[in-house]
Design brief:
Blueprint lengths: L1 E5 L5 H11 L6 E8 L5 H9 L4 E5 L5 H15 L6 E4 L17 H24 L5 E5 L18 H21 L5 E6 L3 E2 L9 E2 H13 L9 E3 L22
Parallel strand pairs: 1-2, 1-4, 2-3, 4-5, 5-6, 6-9, 7-8
Length: 253
Amino acid sequence: MASFLITGSSRGLGLALATRLASLPSGQVGTIFATARQDNSAQLKELISASSGRVEFVGLDVTDKKSVQEATSLVEQKLQGKGLDYLINNAGAMDWNPAGVEGMDNLNEIFNLNVTGTHEVTRAFLPLLRRGEKKSVINISTTLGSVARAHVYEQTRSPAYKITKAALNMLSVQYAQQYASEGFTFLLVSPGWLQTDLGGSRADLPVETGAEKVVDIVLKTGAHQNGKFVNIHVPGWENAEGNNSYAGEEVEW
């Protein structure tokens, strides 16, 4: 029974990931620590209530070091001497700025959440991950952070999001290189354009589909994927028209 911790679980992809994991057999998925800044999500409360104790809420603000430390201590207590198998760094924010890069006045704020927050959570939970069997860290990224594909998304006015996700990719590679010898796997996953508050109703895929396909990748994560960046595989979307396709391939970045 593997254990999981997901950041940003109160809504969107984070909530859908927790829901998907909780739907799998208990012999495959054990405890799911669903973290968020506040316990004010009715949907998350319903999931926890219906999970027979498998889903547990842990307060965690990834931009607050004290909150990260407190969450780490609480999870360690709940694991009762066992390690953490999977850490899914999902918490993040996207900006929208019609003026583009010239009007970008929120880079530090977005960077602190999307990059520094991921770093602080990851390094805080490393001791517990070392004691886990899977030692897997999944960082949710996006093809919008790909330098090689920057021309594809030129008209998307989210400069801080693009910049910080590119930085997240390099952060993940740094971890992958340093901890490969300890048996860790650090994998970047792009879930694509999902129908969430962040993605909007015009997005390609229902969030449930994105979560299902991300979980498929997570459960098959191994050392051969360490330091790589992949997208999800959705049958019928391998060669879709437009900016996004979902073929389960490595992303050029």
